[in-house]
Structures are given as C-alpha cells and as structure tokens.
Fold this sequence. Notes:
The structure holds 2 protein chains of 2 kinds. Chain A is built from 10 helices and 12 strands. In chain A, the strands form 2 sheets. Chain A has a 7-stranded mixed sheet, with helices on both faces. A 5-stranded parallel sheet of chain A has the order 2-1-3-4-5, with helices on both faces. The N and C termini of chain A lie far apart (85 Å). Chain A is of the alpha/beta class. The relative contact order of chain A is 0.15. By secondary structure, chain B is α/β, with parallel strands linked by helices. Helices cover 51% and strands 12% of the residues of chain B. Chain B contains 7 helices and 5 strands. Chain B has a 5-stranded parallel sheet with strand order 2-1-3-4-5, with helices on both faces. Chain B starts with 13 loop residues before the first strand and ends with a helix. The C terminus of chain B is likely disordered. At the A-B interface, loops of A face helix 1 of B.
Amino acid sequence: MKRRVELGLLYSRSGSYALLSNACRDGALAAIAATNADPQTDISFVPVERDPAGNIDLYGPLCEQILRETSARHVIGCITSWSRKEVIPTLEKAGGTLWYATPYEGFEASDHVVYMHACPNQHLLPLLDWAFPRFGRRAYLTGSNYIWGWEINRLARETVTAVGGTVLGERYLPIGSLDVDRMIEEIRVTRPNFILNSLIGPSQYRFLAAYHALGQNDPHFRPETCPILSCNLTECELPAIGEAAEGLIAAGPYFHGMSQWSGPRNFGNSFEAAAYFAVCELARLLAGRASSEAESLAALLGTADQTCSIDPQTHHRTLPVLIAQVQGGVFRVQERRADAPGDPYLTRGQRPIVASPPVLKVVS
Amino acid sequence: MKRRIRIQNLGDARALILHRSHLTVQNLTRQLTAIGLSVTSVWPDPGADVLAADFVFFDADMGHDGQFPWAPGDSPMPMIALIGSEAPGRIEWALGVGAHAQILKPVGDSGVYSALLIARDAFDARRALSAEITDLRSRLDDRQTVVRAVTLLAARGQGEAEAYAQLRQMAMSWRISFEAAAKRIVARYADGEGKDGRRDRG
Lengths: 364, 202
C-alpha cells in the first residue's frame, strides 16, 4: 500500500536560465514517476509545482506558498545561488528542506538544504589544476553579475595567483545583458592562455558566439591554444550555443553516456541526473516509516543508514570529477579524477593549500 | 589597497563554546562542524583547555569576570560574543572581555562563518597594532640614548649632522637598529671616558 507524499517543485520554466530549470525538472519528474511505479517502496510522490518564471522576487513567496498551502516539506528547486539564498529563510521558518541540484560556489552548509551537485573542490579546482599545465597560467575571468560569478572568479584569482599565474582581466555582465564587445576586445588585446566563463543564459550564448568569431580571424583564440572553461556548462545548453560550442571545456560529475554516477541509467546532462538522484535519495529516506515526511532534514539524516550518500555534517555528497570537451557536438571526457567528497568551505584537506610566491622587492 | 581575508586554515581549528547547554550551543556546533572545526562546549568554568582553542565563543548574557585565564582584552585567540540581551551593560562587558565579533542569539542556520572570519581579522589587526605600538614605545624610550650617542660622536670633532650620519652607517654595517647602535656607542664611549664606570662594573 503506497502513501501519498506531496513534493514541491520550484523551477522557472521561462526566463534566462529556463534550459537548466527544465533539465532539472525533467530529472525530478522522471524520478517521481520511477518511484511511484516502484513496488518496492511505499512512497508515492505527488508533485506540487510553482513557477517563478525567472523572477527572483517570486522564489521566496512561492516557496512559502508550497510549505503553507500543502503538506509538502521537501522542495526540489532553484537554479541560481541568488534564488537559493532567497528561499532559505522561508525553509528555516517552516522547517522545510530544499534539494538543490545545481553546481554552486560553495561556502554554505544550511541545515535546510541538500547540495546534490558539485561545489568548487569538485569542479573549479580540479578544472584549473588540469588546465594550467596544458594551456598556461594567464587567465581572463568572466561572469554574470551575481554571487556565482563573483565567488568562482575570486577563488580562481586566488588559485591562479598562488601558482604564480596572472589574471589579465575580470569582467561581469548583468544577467541577460548581451553587451559582450568590451570583454571580447579585452581578451583580444591581452591574449590569455584560457578564459574562465561563469556567464549564464543569453549573455553566455552571445559571448561564446562572439569568441568563436574572434577565433575565425585570429587562430590564437581557438580551443587548442586559448579554450573557454566552465564549471556549469552541460549538454542542455549546447543547442542554444550551436557551432560555437565546439572545443568548450567543462568540469562536472556527469556527462551524457558516462556510467560512473548514474549506473545503467542514462541522462541528458548532470542537472537532470542530480535532480533525479535528489528525488530517489529522498524516497529512500522517507520509505518504510509512517509520517517520516514531516521530520526535519536533520532527523531524517539521523535515521539514514550507510547507503545514504549525503554527508550529515555538510549535506553535500561525494561526486565523480570529470573534465570533458565538446568534440563533434558532444561532450567527450578528457580526464576522470578520483571521486571527491563535497568540501564547501575548502577546509577538509583535499585542496592543496598552495603557498603564495615570495614577494621580491627590487633593491637599489 | 584591497583587504584580502584568509579563507584557509579553518580546517581542524578548535572552537570552544563557553555557554550553558542550550539550543544555541547545538546550532553553533552544527555550523562549526559543517565548516570543518572541532568543537567543545563547557560551562561555567572553561578550565585550562580554553588556552588550546583557536576560537572562543562566549556567552555575553551570563558570562562574568574571572572566567578567562588572561587579562581582560588580552586573549591569545579571537573571541566571539554570543549576545542575547542587547543591554548596554552586557555589551560593555563583552567589549571589556575583548570581543572581536558577535553573533546574536538565538543562533539559527547561519552567521558563524562570517563571525569566524571577521573575528580573526580583527584579532590579527589588533595584535599587529599592539606589536607596532610596543616597538614605537621602545624606540621613544631610546630617544635619549640616541641624543647621547650623537653628542658623544660629535664631541670627537665633527658636526652633529655628520655624527648622525655616522651612527646610521654604523647601524647598517652592524645590521642592527639605529637605537641599538646608539646603545653600543653610549656604552663604548662612556667606558672610554669614565674609567670609574668600568671599575664599578669590574
């Protein structure tokens, strides 16, 4: 006999990052269908959907609506860090939990959030470590003007500087802005070894197209000598990028066709996979105990057995670390590193703390 | 200049919470453990363990003088006040104890990470300032020695400016501070001129 458990879904189905939202939503809905069809579990999820349509000010109120008007205590949702931070106070008040299936910039471990996708020790740091010996240490940093870009670039700057490299430029665009000419011009003039791209949505697509055009005129700006690196680019955005996608490099826990994380199941991209596993993990935590859906996340994790993949201290999880490049229109894995536990505050020692290079003064 | 904070080295740091058993302690402990620190909590007497802590969180509501084994304001680690009642007397006491940062009670889901970084930065800044002040003080105290040394050198037949330059040269070639060089000069010429001094010491 199955019991009905309402489950919140909070994804923007339109707006500048709708492709990512829809990838996550597809994964969550597929997992809900799989759970409901599974005779081994007593859980039957009933999705309760709200759509903020890319409007940052709707996340808090719509999350509150889910928690107040329905019995759902768990919400799968949010793409941007900005929206995640908007809903945390609401979750705290209502004792709810957000299952967050997007890569993010770290430095958070809320008691009300499960972080299913990668944080910097699982994407940015291995990506830079891989790129330095191959391309060099002269970097240009770009990003959309909000916390994801700011923090990724801050960490990148710290890392590049620590190994004696140079940051040639760091520039941001407001979310949705298409004004990429200045960035492209600065890149053309400074001739970096690689570009770290933390732009999102249409800004990113316009930037990638303009950079691709630059590479047509000057062979330095091609993937072999000056590639673009991302920590959040997946297959779900390739159709929007078109031929400019060729040669892009990304780090992530999963790429289409890899089996390490997903087992026999195949996903379109890592967003879909992370949302899928979020629902499955929740179903496992709730199964077999009546009214467990009313318990807090801390209480649920307290009852979890060894098979639970979520670290009870940080609410992050161990993930594969893959570095892949778009070749012939699909991501091909270039390197697979050891699986890494999420280390949101970079305090758990997998990160080599590189000493600053000595500061030499000219003595006259 | 842009101020850069140190984000490293919080891993394996030890935090001591000086607060009676309470939800506040539980929530603080959760946040600290998630960040990567090890945590002990104790009330009301911290014992000698407090000296081994890298950060101390203390209750500003029930705390009292004599809980810490150091002079007020002279803690060997950053101190973070846990403030419930924002009464001026309690805030004054927390400042007197030497709080480098504060967190308001009730402690919920966040606030600890920024308090750690702000407290450590304030602690480092305060410590660097007081080292600088100590150094400046001792140089002030040595002013008279410098004047005597310059006078002694000038008395050997050169102008004051030349004597001053000579003393600077000596300090550089001996690789010691200006004030230390002045001390040496004073000791040497005082010996040379006043045989009494030497006899006294001998």
